[in-house]
Specification:
This protein has 173 residues and is mainly α. It folds into two domains: 76 residues, no CATH class; 65 residues, no CATH class. It is built from seven helices and three strands, in the order H-H-H-H-E-E-H-E-H-H. A three-stranded antiparallel sheet has the order 2-1-3. The radius of gyration is 30 Å and the shape is elongated.
């Protein structure tokens, strides 16, 4: 939504409820709160405000956000697709970590949402640098497990074993 679209919507709602148009400073502050809402939802939101409220809403930016979320529920195809980021620290937003406890024990495994790209919506994040300071190292699943598939005969031959030939045709009695 552009500042002009926002100001026009608020002025229209104010006129509809016969209320004094807010000052330019108020309009700018409200725009900062709702700037992430796309302009194509404005008409739908305005109509819902007129239908649901008998008087000018007390907290207009919050009402607009609530109605925008309702618009997304009504038109899910309009939601912007989430962009995936090719972050060098993580795999699809997750840090895959390992920490050696002792040379004879299995290392501790851990995962955490990446603090560099923040692809996942989480309350807390961990940066790879902080994990490394805590003694963890990154485990790269994409390269570590990118193994060429081999048939059983080839695997057995690689360790010096033979796979016995099995007759798959049923014998008649």
């Amino acid at each position: 939504m552009t500042p002009i679209e926002c100001h026009e919507m608020i002025k229209t709602v104010s006129a509809y409820y016969e209320r004094k148009i807010p000052s330019d400073r108020t309009l700018d502050l409200w725009f900062e709160r709702i700037r992430g809402i796309p302009g194509e939802s404005i008409g739908w939101i305005q109509t819902r405000i007129f239908e649901q409220f008998e008087a000018f809403p007390k907290n207009l930016p919050s009402v607009i956000w609530e109605l925008y979320n309702a618009w997304l529920d009504a038109y899910p195809e309009k939601a912007a697709p989430r962009e995936t980021v090719d972050c060098p620290d993580c795999e699809s937003g997750w840090l895959i970590l390992e920490k050696d406890q002792d040379p004879y024990r299995t290392p501790i495994s851990a995962t955490a949402p990446c603090g560099r790209c923040r692809q996942l919506r989480m309350p807390k994040y961990l940066r790879l640098e902080d994990a490394m300071l805590a003694g963890f190292r990154r485990k790269n699943l994409t390269t570590e497990y990118a193994v060429r598939r081999r048939p059983v005969r080839e695997l057995a031959a690689s360790i010096g074993r033979n796979v016995p030939q099995v007759n798959t045709v049923a014998q008649e009695d």
